[in-house]
Amino acid sequence: MPVARTHCVGLVGVTGRLVEVEADVGPGIAGTHFIGLLDTAISEARGRVRSALINSRFAWPDARVTVSLFPATLPKRGSIFDLAIAIAVLGAAGAVPAQRIAAPTFLGELGLDGRVRPIRGVLPAALAAAEAGVRTVVVPALNAAEAALVPDLTVVPVATLAELVGWLRSGDLHRLPVVADAASLSQDAGQAQHDDHTEHAERGEHPEHTGHCRNGRRAEDAPRPFGPYGGGRAAPGPDLCDVAGQPMGRKALEVCAAGGHNLWMLGPPGSGKTMLAERLPTLLPPLDQESALEVSAIHSVAGTLPPGRPLLTRPPFMAPHHSATMAAVVGGGSGGLVRPGTVSLAHRGVLFLDEAPEFATTVLDSLRQPLESGTVTIARAVGAVTFPARFMLVLAANPCPCGLQGTVGHPCKCTPAGRRRYLDRLSGPLLDRVDVKVKIGRATRAELLADRHFVETSATVAERVRLARERAARRLAGTPWRTNAEVSSSALHRDFRLSDAAMAPLHRGLDVGTLSARGLDRVLRISWTIADLTCKDRPGQAETSAALALWLGVD
Ligand SMILES: Nc1ncnc2c1ncn2[C@@H]1O[C@H](COP(=O)(O)OP(=O)(O)OP(=O)(O)O)[C@@H](O)[C@H]1O
Ligand SMILES: [Mg+2]
Ligand SMILES: [Zn+2]
């Protein structure tokens, strides 16, 4: 009985698992049967695979075709299995040699005409395949750069099913361009090459398929960070030197960047809250290799990776609109792959809620789980999906619904109760998790008109942040934490105790009731960050006092 076996990867969130795809072509009434837990998308695969085969001039077996996806318990979503199913059926029918399809993993969706279409989630799928010991992965040409980020994996990009079958029949791997592994990729291709790539992408081609790419990758195909995700040589982005005045706002931003603290800014419209928040990512260090892959994998599943530039090396900055739905913020979607929400797209970066009190209360409440655990779980009929979601939260708010409170010449008409209700939307569990709170006033005329050549740039502040983070990392070596904001309460009081003199301002705060028990821990964490920024081995009274002021902020 001709049975052929190959592999694909099933994704749950950003976790991939190798799936064995088996096809059996045997006697019986002609028809196609699928075994395994399948959602609608995969039933549709039956139609797509059949049409793709026929339109690529391969006969669909006139027999009983059984396709089994194993393990059956793994929920299999999306069109990622199309290519593996087609290849297994062709193997069982004797159209391609079964032994050549056994080892590689095939990922990709098929168009009805036999084209191999790009899919979401290639990076986490390729990572999972490599982890399971797979050495060769066949992917849609447009996803090849993404798969090539995985070390020690031979990536074979294909554009059509016919091309792939030709390769499998001849057994000549080098008939198709093989993408080298990420180690050989340069991180710094220029803008001209970026344009070249964009042009290809717009024409729906892939540079690897323009003929002169063979057995390796051209320098210009190397991933290069760009746009909001990376620096590169693109046009200069936002810089802290654009912000006039705002010494408290700038200080708060620096402390948050250094310690990974959450931030709340309260101030009238036009005072520069949005400006400041947008500049926080410019103060953060680039992602390390592990985080870059982790963040890129999430964006791969979401389908938000910039075309051809698959490795996100800068901390992401996500700023959802206040009308954003729960599904958009937390993640969701039916059928196919569950899409990560904004909280996961902000993983290892910044989640900025501008006009925070305008967000739906359910959305604000949904931030509690990720703030607590660094993950978000989306419940689905087929099972729960968990995505990473460890971000720095930045909230901005006007002092009242009309935003005019405290402004000269335009009296605010909001009632005291209306104002309270407005800010109360943020209170409680969410603000409990915010370390640094600042009131932002309007910059003065003198500040706005001063020569900005003398204003500190993002690069200068980012260097101080880098050094402070290094100090913290040295102190926290051997613990599960990377930044001061993550250190547990018990460790703060056990391993990182401060002198009585340093604690004096906090004792007073506890005595008079301005500082709560939870607040105490937050102030201690900020104190350590301020000490790191000022190159002190441990916080003294000056640091705890400054930290208390940053925590009390808008109270
Ligand atoms: N400190 C400042 N330095 C330079 N420009 C500023 C400053 N504050 C405000 N501006 C100018 O005002 C514009 C509005 O600033 P921004 O959007 O950051 O204010 P905001 O506090 O977020 O206001 P809103 O509450 O209306 O959202 C900026 O684009 C900038 O041109
Ligand atoms: Mg704003
Ligand atoms: Zn008002």
Protein architecture, described:
With 555 residues, the chain is an alpha/beta fold. The model is unreliable at 180-235 (pLDDT under 50). The strands form 6 sheets. The chain has a 5-stranded parallel β-sheet with strand order 11-14-17-10-18. Strands 1-2-4-3 form a 4-stranded mixed β-sheet. A 3-stranded parallel β-sheet has the order 5-8-9, sandwiched between helices. It is built from 22 helices and 18 strands. The protein has helices at 40-55, 82-92, 98-101, 122-131, 144-147, 161-170, 191-202, 247-259, 273-278, 289-302, 326-330, 342-345, 361-366, 368-373, 416-424, 429-432, 445-449, 458-475, 489-494, 500-512, 517-533, 541-552, and strands at residues 3-12, 15-26, 31-35, 64-70, 105-106, 109-110, 116-117, 136-140, 154-158, 263-266, 317-318, 331-332, 339-340, 350-353, 375-378, 385-388, 392-397, 436-439. It is 37% helix and 15% strand. Bound molecules: adenosine-5'-triphosphate, magnesium ion and zinc ion.
Short description:
By secondary structure, the protein is an alpha/beta fold.
